[in-house]
Design a protein that fits this description.
Mean pLDDT: 75
Distance between the termini: 68 Å
Shape: elongated
Radius of gyration: 17 Å
Low-confidence stretches: none
Order of helices and strands: HHH
Helix content: 55-70%
Strand content: under 5%
Structural class: mainly alpha
Number of strands: 0
């Protein structure tokens, strides 16, 4: 009894679905410091739900307040 190709594909798909949000959280330039760490923990614990929730609640709202979450102020013309 070995592993079938379908079992292998399902296993690889599950690993991919779990790791992609974590990698996106760690490689994102939209969050810094503790925000990035919290994003990583949420996406690791809840996979896509944590990733999407944190993105819409924190990262998108931080676009309106660049001083928060370690962001740098844009250059003034």
């Amino acid at each position: 009894m070995g592993i079938s190709i379908w079992q292998l594909l399902i296993l690889l798909g599950a690993v991919f679905i779990t790791l992609v949000p974590c990698a996106c959280a760690l490689l994102s330039k939209k969050a810094k410091g503790w925000s990035k760490f919290a994003w990583f923990l949420l996406s690791f614990a809840f996979s896509w739900l944590g990733y999407l929730g944190y993105y819409f609640l924190v990262v998108r709202s931080s676009a309106n307040t660049p001083a928060e979450y370690g962001r740098i102020h844009p250059k003034r013309p």
